[in-house]
Amino acid sequence: MADMAAPVQVSQPVKYKKKRTKITTFDVVNVIVFTLIALIVIIPLWKVIVDSFNAVGVYQFKLWPTDPTFDGYKTIFTTQKLYRPFINSVVTTVLGTLVGLIMSTLGGYVLNQYDMPGRNAFSYFLLFTMIFSGGMIPEYLVMKQLHLVDSMWILVVKHGMNVYNLVLMKNFFEGIPTSLYEAAELDGCTPMGIFFKIVLPLSKAALASIGLMFAVTVWNDYSTVQIYITDPNQVNFQYQLRVMIMDGDTPTTAYRVSQDTLYYASIVCAILPFMAVYPFLQKYFVTGINAGAVKE
């Protein structure tokens, strides 16, 4: 009788047990702390949004408007004396952000040149300005000599140089591999050519994050307008809203809206542009800040 073929043994698939993640006390405390921080930020913001839709101003916290209405926003959108301040804010924010980015990127790139004469002295001089300032009166005299008093362009010039943002850009540039600079030099690229062709294309995350910080600073600055500007045609949107809220200079309107509802609607309109923009820049913001602030 012929030998029968030996049966083929089929190997059983190996089952891997999933390792259970061990939850530590630190994880629990971390979640609780950051949940509380998130609630501290979200609850006041949600109250402002809800009260901006209430026809009658309320002082207690409510999850939803009791008498919903859009009259507060209609009043703001139809108030003509807010149009010019809003345009001024848009113009100064765009130009202030561009000037700030130009100064920060060029300054950070120059300070990143280790063979530049006087590099350390110039760095210490910039860091000195982060600790000490001339004060309000000398600053006012300088702005007056520059003919920036009673001009909205003071917002562009004043926030054009921010040493903190410059240091962040410098640290970000230091993270770019030196081999890229050397390869560009071997190909005959000039220092400014390296800046525009190598450095800037690799710095999109840092530019987005620092640009957002410049934009928020210029957009929210009303104290500079309060000190230096008396011409009502040169004020920005934030200052005009502050006048409406603090001084009670509310516009006359045919809409059924209370004064408190109008105040809350004004606050939402002031923060709405950056609430809409920030989600699209969040990934660049986190990456850029970490790359510029953490140095290995």
Summarize it.
The protein has 296 residues and is mostly helical. Helix content is 64%, strand content 0%.
Sequence stretches where pLDDT stays below 50 over 5 or more residues? 292-296
Describe the main β-sheet briefly.
none
CATH topology-level fold name of the largest domain: MetI-like fold
Number of H- or I-type helical stretches: 13
Shape: globular
> Would you list the SSEs in sequence order as H and E?
HHHHHHHHHHHHH
What value does the Rg take, in angstroms? Answer: 28 Å
Q: Strand tally, please?
A: 0
The assigned structural class equals mainly alpha
Give the strand content: under 5%
CATH-assigned homologous superfamily of the largest domain:
MetI-like
Mean pLDDT: 80
The domain count comes to: 2
The percentage helix is: 55-70%
CATH architecture of the largest domain: Orthogonal Bundle
Structure, explained:
The protein starts with 24 loop residues before the first helix and ends with a helix. It has 296 residues and is mostly helical. The radius of gyration is 28 Å and the shape is globular. The protein has two domains: 22-68, no CATH class; 72-293, Orthogonal Bundle (MetI-like fold), CATH 1.10.3720. Helices cover 64% and strands 0% of the residues.
